[in-house]
């Protein structure tokens, strides 16, 4: 069987050392007999003068080529994962590619939203939990929005979180490697129901 | 031609009056000869005891049935659009369905990130703008992350923003209606390159 290609989604691209982190992830992939495709390899533009469009097209092309995705879902500048990463997760999922993910910050979406709003949620008359912003908060004990959590669960996986807090959540690769170990233990990509 | 079905994506589902807002959007769709599919219609569970999974599957089924998507991309509890909505945008885009979107809060992603971080961005040695969190910030003048903005641009559209500030950004339907007007003016859905 050809070596599985893994698209490495995440806000890692925004790190000043994005290229080095991408290479570190690719080395870890190789250790498990897998090939990592890093979007940081392609963010160069295509000479069109349209850098934003060029990055977009390069990321889509790389995902189209990938067999599956491992997404860094560590909350980024807010309560949820990086929005570009979440778009990519939806894109890959729709194409039938298995999606895995990890998050290096502890806690549930509910806990983070409560912290963000600075007030405890209260139960509404419709049975849902509401924030002080008078918008409901998902209460499923999940790491992030249910569309993200369920997409990963649909492929028989969970969002991997570190067993102990990590010093550098946006760079730590422990939970990423746990995803690789899970993948390498499978003889084929996880089947979708 | 059969009436186009539009999946109504957005954090509207978290409003206490989500059902009423969904119905108001559906009435506006009908005004332009379009059919709105509202996820608030289906969030009832499927008797499996797995409400999160049931919502997920219902949203996917509704998107699969839709011809296109109009997403409420108004920033939600942070600098970006609601993450569930962004997942759905990626999902629908991958399936080749045209995606439109609107945002009822003014400003660019860059401006919102600077406000969120409470400090002006600075230029890094690699030419990118960085926040005080030492992570790059996209500087393309876009309303949100480039994956979102470019997906909409790929279908020949832009993220619609209100001409003047609106009083209730999570409920205002002016920009939503602008999307409908644009759609109704087309004899067929926008072609993708």
Structure explained in plain terms:
The structure is a homodimer of 193-residue chains. Chain A is α/β, with parallel strands linked by helices and 193 residues long. Helices cover 36% and strands 12% of the residues of chain A. Chain A has six helices and seven strands. Chain A has helices at residues 18-31, 51-65, 83-94, 109-117, 146-154, 174-184, and strands spanning 5-9, 35-37, 68-72, 99-102, 122-123, 129-130, 136-137. In chain A, the strands form two sheets. Chain A has a four-stranded parallel beta sheet with strand order 2-1-3-4, with helices on both faces. In chain A, strands 5-6-7 form a three-stranded antiparallel beta sheet. In chain A, helix 3 (83-94) links the parallel strand 3 (68-72) and strand 4 (99-102). Chain A is globular and about 55 Å long. The relative contact order of chain A is 0.16. The mean pLDDT of chain A is 92. Chains A and B meet through helix 2, helix 3, helix 4, strand 7 and helix 5 of A and helix 2, helix 3, helix 4, strand 7 and helix 5 of B.
């Amino acid at each position: 069987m050809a070596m599985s290609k893994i698209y490495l989604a995440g806000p890692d691209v925004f790190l000043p050392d994005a290229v080095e982190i991408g290479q570190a992830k690719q080395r870890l992939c190789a250790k498990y007999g897998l090939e990592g495709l890093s979007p940081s390899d392609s963010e160069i533009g295509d000479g069109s003068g349209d850098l934003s469009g060029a990055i977009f097209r390069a990321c889509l092309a790389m995902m189209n080529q990938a067999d599956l995705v491992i997404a860094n879902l560590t909350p980024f500048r807010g309560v949820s994962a990086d929005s570009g990463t979440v778009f990519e997760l939806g894109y890959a999922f729709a194409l039938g590619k298995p999606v895995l993910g990890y998050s290096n910050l502890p806690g549930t979406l509910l806990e983070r939203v409560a912290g963000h709003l600075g007030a405890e949620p209260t139960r509404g008359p419709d049975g849902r939990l509401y924030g002080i912003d008078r918008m409901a908060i998902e209460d499923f004990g999940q790491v992030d929005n249910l569309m993200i959590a369920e997409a990963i669960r649909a492929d028989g996986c969970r969002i991997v979180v570190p067993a102990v807090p990590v010093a550098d959540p946006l760079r730590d690769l422990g939970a990423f490697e746990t995803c690789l170990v899970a993948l390498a233990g499978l003889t084929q990509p996880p089947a979708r129901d």
